[in-house]
């Protein structure tokens, strides 16, 4: 199988991954994982340390896979992503849509240059005829006096791209394409039939949470707010007067929606591996109070996207906590709509790798935005190869 290296820069981690065949011909992802000082409030905490972590992660993957990387596909976190939706309209003299009309519409859709962001992708979302009917596929042959095209343009902040490219330049590696986190996960994890009806992607990360509206083969709106599971752990540490390492351990052992009896304990490990018990009622109150705050802000954003979504569009949940016990059911009650974890923890990778595995899927597309034919809509099963077959 063709090597498809990817680089994911998260709010607290950096992952480099590629797919390679073992002796039995089975495709196995090879990866390296580096902690870094992270992203806070939409900016890097320490650009130098992040650059060094990028180099370390890529070099470790090269060594592990015995493969020298020359081109790589990189993610774009929500805080560094800008999405623009624009509509172009073409009047038709023949009252019938032709392939030439579709091409003219596409040529009318052009990205706007920005001094602080670079254009990284264009998605043709849907077409609208003069009667207001919507078509996901090009409506060649449709009878209408005019045809409009809704186009999504994706941009990455130069603050982000400059750091990534400067770090990779030290290794003589170029960025072949940037893919937004939300786009990669939406295309990989949300079934195409659901995307055709619209869906929400909710990504709760280390220090930020992104809410994305997904329709057809595009992310059409996205908002990011700066709160995540590190805030939950921080609340636990304060409530129980313990350290953050122990707080993270306790968080992973909590069962959302449970009603502990007075005196019940929940256990967590400190940095030395020592186990200790803590008041389960205090743990529940600390975790679920912060979770409600996060859910309330996500709900506010989803409500603001209501014109882009069908009523009660399901939420696809991703992030490190997406498979926490009872978490999706708890969020479903808070949001008043179905909540579905994007990946079940059944394989060799935890939910920490959701974005990386999705990027690797999209990498199989051979640089989705660099090949014109890949802008055409195809069923997901035809576009993404099974990494584990």
Describe the structure.
This protein is α+β, with helices and mostly antiparallel strands and 389 residues long. Among the domains are: 81-156, 2-Layer Sandwich (Dna Ligase, domain 1); 192-341, 2-Layer Sandwich (Nucleotidyltransferase, domain 5), CATH 3.30.420.40. Helix content is 32%, strand content 30%. The chain is built from eleven helices and 18 strands. The strands form five sheets. A five-stranded mixed sheet has the order 3-2-1-6-11, sandwiched between helices. A five-stranded mixed sheet has the order 14-13-12-17-18, sandwiched between helices. The longest helix is centred in the last third of the chain and has 25 residues, at 280-304. The protein is globular, with a radius of gyration of 22 Å. Residues 366-389 have low confidence and may be disordered.
> For the record, what CATH class of one domain applies?
Alpha Beta
Span between N and C termini? 11 Å
Principal-axes shape call: globular
- How much of the residues is beta strand, in percent? 25-35%
Strand order of the largest sheet: 3-2-1-6-11
* Integer-rounded radius of gyration: 22 Å
> What is the fold-level CATH name, i.e. the topology of one domain?
Nucleotidyltransferase, domain 5
CATH architecture of one domain: 2-Layer Sandwich
Q: Tally of extended strands?
A: 18
Question: Unreliable runs, pLDDT <50, ≥5 residues?
Answer: 366-389
